[in-house]
Amino acid sequence: MRSIVLTKGVPDFSEGAVSFDDEGHLERGKTPTVMNPNDHFALEAALQTRVRHGGHVSGMSMGPPSYSSVLEEAMDYIYSDDSYLLSDRALAASDTWATAITLSAAIEKYQEEVADVDVLFAGFKTADGETGHTGPQTAWCLEWPIVTHVVALDIDPEARQLRAKRLVEGDVDEIETVEAPLPCVVIPDPEFSPTYRKASHRLEHKRLRAATQERAADHEAYLTTWDHEDMRLDPEYIGLDGSPTIVSSVDPIPKAPSERDATMVDPTDDAQMTPVLEELQPFAAGD
Q1: Of the candidates 24, 140, 193, 248, which lies 20 to 30 Å from 113 by C-alpha distance?
Q2: Which residues, 6 or more positions from 92, have their beta carbon under 8 angstroms from its beta carbon?
């Protein structure tokens, strides 16, 4: 069983980590990059598949050289065997369509030079784009069937068939069971939760974790980087030139309003400190 997991680096939107300019625009250079949160569900689905059926898992990401840290996190998370980074200035400013063209070209190169892929896992959507287009568009480029909103899955390797439970139009109260031939693309829903009911699965999970800790410590040795020439891509169809999306305008992100007032006091001024002590005294007494 051979799987690839697509993952992406996004700005760290946690409190205190995001940097904005005076107009409210995100400053990516001053904001840390983390793995896209929704990619974790794709990683969990890929790990469950590997624990149950064995095989090989590769992580793949498209972005600047710094995205190698995202692939390192993926390796540690899903115990992937190796990583592939698609990095090139010609790929910069790609919209989802240009990204899908690049990813599909990389997967075709992978199949030509490494091995045939059985399942491609991708995140539900990214935290910085929120379109949810890249996975489906990549499936279209590859001409592979796609199953979205997956909450549970299993594979019959001999029959070359995937069987999955998926939410119907995102409704958690309505679930349908579908089948798809391999190779296919799987988009796990945020409701996806891996299951390891057999003792053999739990033991395999533990074994893979131990084996990966040493590999992840030397992540760069398992990282392959491809540029647009490696993937035989025409610059006119990738990056900004190959992106048909037009952004008509960008609204600045408003600063969050303060939730409480703050009163500045001088700790050396007894008159200012007296009301502070009166406010804290009941709590110091245990009331």
Answers
A1: 140
A2: 239, 240
